[in-house]
Design a protein that fits this description.
One of its GO terms (molecular function) is oxidoreductase activity. It comes from Catellatospora coxensis. By secondary structure, the chain is an alpha+beta fold. It has 10 helices and 9 strands. The protein has 2 domains: about 120 residues, 3-Layer(aba) Sandwich (NADH Oxidase); about 170 residues, NADH Oxidase (3-Layer(aba) Sandwich).
């Protein structure tokens, strides 16, 4: 059936709104959700919401851009699952640093079962801070995730046992540096404590009830939650690094898209994921990660992959801001 231009524009805007609603489930540092969308009849614009930035923890805005990139990819997934082929123009306005991307519909695409499963994975995806059990991640699973990251233009490297030892040192240094930075401590206490803004932050049920006994230490939020850690020690976990040749805003945004793509695929594979962004937030440990990669690229994020303990309940989902707090609808077409 042929539609009029007005009807087509209306249906595109509705698809944009549905995609933005789905993108609210995207991961973000400290669950700050630092993005804002503007929905137009013919395009979808993504902006950074710097009111939810973390200047003490993330002074260069790397993780803010990674978080927004993850939301961007979530929206892309939702649009494709609705039958829309899209084009993304990153950083479209040099005069507006907060304008991160413009998304337009460029045609129709078949709705596949894989696309629908990815949308379902968006609802299931969560951060799992519990130690993993002694079930190894297979080489085939890592290869699949490497392919997924590569499709977005980001490399994925599996750390060797010696490199995991180096990661242990880097994480320890990053935690010490953060503990000595009052602004970073204050941000951790705000977003993981009882006073975090409604619809954001980390509730007790996603934070371990005790410090997990693992070789690679997790981020210390300075609070104890109610998440049962179980008895695992991460001995079978796999650690991977998302990295690339560039270290700029476009690269960080792209890294967020890769993070979303890898995480959704890992979710469909039944793998638990835990990001380690602290080694990227600190200048010294970021340099350590570059050396770990033999200067072949810049590290964007470290991910722990593993199998969650089936004997314990999964962590709850973190809260989300309402649609109205993350999106503005412009019906004028400007």
């Amino acid at each position: 059936m042929t539609t009029t231009t007005g009807e087509h524009r209306q249906s595109t805007a509705a698809a944009f709104a549905q995609a933005v609603d789905a993108a609210r489930r995207a991961p973000s540092i400290h669950n700050t959700q630092p993005w804002h969308w503007r929905i137009h009849p013919d395009r979808l614009d993504l902006y950074a919401d710097t009111s939810r930035a973390l200047p003490g923890t993330d002074p260069d805005g790397r993780m803010l851009l990674v978080s927004c990139g993850a939301a961007l990819h979530h929206a892309q997934v939702a649009l494709r699952a609705a039958g829309h082929e899209v084009a993304v123009r990153p950083l479209p306005d040099p005069a507006d640093a907060d304008h991160l991307a413009t998304v337009t519909v460029v045609g129709d695409t078949p709705v596949t079962a894989g696309a629908v499963r990815l949308v379902q994975a968006m609802q299931l995806r969560h951060t799992d801070r519990r130690p993993t059990v002694d079930v190894p991640v297979t080489a085939e699973q890592v290869d699949e995730l490497r392919r997924i990251a590569g499709a977005v233009g980001v490399h994925l490297h599996k750390l060797t046992p010696d490199q995991v030892t180096d990661l242990v040192v880097a994480v320890s240094h990053a935690e010490d540096a953060a503990a000595a930075e009052p602004a970073a401590l204050a941000e951790s206490h705000l977003w993981a404590g009882p006073g975090h803004p409604a619809g954001t932050g980390l509730p007790p049920e996603v934070i371990p009830d005790r410090r997990p006994e693992t070789d690679v230490g997790e981020r210390d939020f300075g609070v104890r939650g109610t998440l049962m850690t179980g008895g695992g020690h991460d001995k079978a976990s796999t650690y991977v690094v998302l990295f690339g040749a560039d270290d700029d805003r476009a690269a960080w945004l792209r890294a967020g898209q890769a993070l979303s793509a890898v995480w959704l695929d890992a979710t469909m594979q039944g793998l638990a994921v835990l990001p380690f962004s602290q080694v990227i937030e600190i200048d010294g440990t970021r340099a350590m990660m570059r050396r770990l990669l033999s200067h072949l690229g810049y590290a964007y994020l470290v991910l722990r992959l593993g199998v969650a303990d089936p004997e314990h309940a999964l962590p709850g989902h973190t809260p989300r801001l309402p649609f109205e707090a993350t999106a503005t609808i412009d019906e004028t077409g400007r």
